């Protein structure tokens, strides 16, 4: 759903740029709580010490999976947006930053998503998806039994809804500042219809990823923090509540290194972007298909970075499509994980610096 230059007029693009900048500023402050942790922090905030190093990896993983367009209808494909996945894994504020880093890398290096439309894309794909998905996710987790399975189910539903929500947001933006005269009702029907189908794919990817991480390291999943489970004993082949465990008990959290998870996630991202992406659907994604069918792309402009060595996810001057695309994907994952990790390291360091004076004052 990367919006190119020329779809939305300059005033609307400028306003969304201001909105995106404001949201990123707020997210930087919020991410300091999610990724940091002080002696006065809540249990959820202290968990940031375990997930902070994974935030850059989440951005790289989203970049890799976005290269995997999957077919959703005749002549149409879709790809992960990633807002729900990022929010559930590392927190909503950090999630906005993760997707924003991905969009920035894609726009600058790969000519994917217009540079003048960067505010539109961040507002639509980072802010709307993350806010809608996480709000719905938290509501479902409160209603469902407090279990790991409930987190996975809530992840599925939240991701599913977040995609048509983003399609609706784009429709509203196009209604306000579209550059062609097209009946907005037709745009809304087409956009929401195809993105409901894409949302199913998003939901499957999100639920599988969240479920996989929860299965091995539930303490690393931001949305799973605070889960409680009763202590059970097996008596005559049946599980029963242990004596004194009538109330909720904290789920054990292992103080283990995240290195194995980080390496596994990085390798998976490299394989997806460097190899599996070659087999992705070549059909236009939902927005491209609707734009072509409804004529909203009449004033689309060439990307400012169209001559980039990595434009269109290929390495310039390498004629072999498999090698070119795979190498571009590997470079993209590497650049994104470095850029994302640098951002989140800086955010967390700022949190630690801010906490130091208070700690010093307390000990004097």
Task: Using brief descriptors, characterize the structure shown.
364 residues, mainly alpha, Arp2/3 complex 21 kDa subunit ARPC3, two-stranded antiparallel sheet, 11 helices, disordered C terminus
Short note summarizing the structure:
The chain has 364 residues and is mainly alpha-helical. The protein has a single domain, classed as Arp2/3 complex 21 kDa subunit ARPC3.
Helices and strands, with pairings:
Blueprint: H1 10-35, H2 43-46, H3 48-66, E1 70-73, E2 76-78, H4 83-90, H5 92-109, H6 118-143, H7 148-177, H8 184-216, E3 228-229, E4 232-235, E5 238-241, E6 249-250, H9 259-274, H10 286-294, H11 321-363
Antiparallel strand pairs: 1-2, 3-6, 4-5
Helix pairs in contact: 1-5, 1-6, 1-11, 3-4, 3-5, 3-9, 3-11, 4-5, 4-6, 4-7, 4-8, 5-6, 5-11, 6-7, 7-8, 8-10, 9-11
Q: How does this model look, in words?
A:
This protein has eleven helices and six strands. The protein has about 375 residues and is mostly helical. The protein has one domain: Arp2/3 complex 21 kDa subunit ARPC3 (Orthogonal Bundle). The strands form three sheets. The chain has a two-stranded antiparallel ribbon. Strands 3-6 form a two-stranded antiparallel sheet.
